[in-house]
Amino acid sequence: MPAIPPPDSALGRLMATLPRAGRVEWIGLRPKRDVEMASTQAVEAQTGKGLVGDRYTGGSGKRGVTLIQAEHLPAIAALSGHASVPPALLRRNVVVSGIPLIALKGRRFRIGDVVLEGTDSCDPCSRMEEALGPGGFNAMRHMGGLCARIVEGGTFRVGDSVSAIEDKDG
């Protein structure tokens, strides 16, 4: 994994520049394995655990929430041969628009009352072949989104803003 540039370097300052907030467009939960995701308008996030009602609650915490970029959905659909792709099919908890999720990797950010920290890319799994058809896995490569851990629990809703938290040390 490439080193993160120091925050006082030119590249570090560019990578930290997020002048606009994003927005939550969709929230989904899957209560257990092998069931469809259920859309919801609001969700409670538990510190260090996950989203109440989602099967990953109580896991390691590094994957407490999975997010995907709304702007990537049309590209994933086109690359997998579909006119559109419903968010539930991609098995991510939150669809976000207006802010580049990759810029939140390794950073803290806020959605509603909740503070999260981007832990890793949310790479696609082999189930995307089943969901999207042949080539579905490759259609999602580098567009699978972001995994995040919940640092401060609370509630967030569809329509809430998504914004990076400024690093006090940087």
TrEMBL record:
PROSITE patterns: MOSC. Signal peptide: none annotated. It comes from the Bacteria. Residues 37-165 form the MOSC domain. SUPFAM superfamilies: PK beta-barrel domain-like. GO terms for molecular function: catalytic activity; molybdenum ion binding; pyridoxal phosphate binding. Pfam families: MOSC. InterPro entries: MoCF_Sase_C, MOSC_domain, Pyrv_Knase-like_insert_dom_sf. This is MOSC domain-containing protein. It comes from Noviluteimonas gilva.
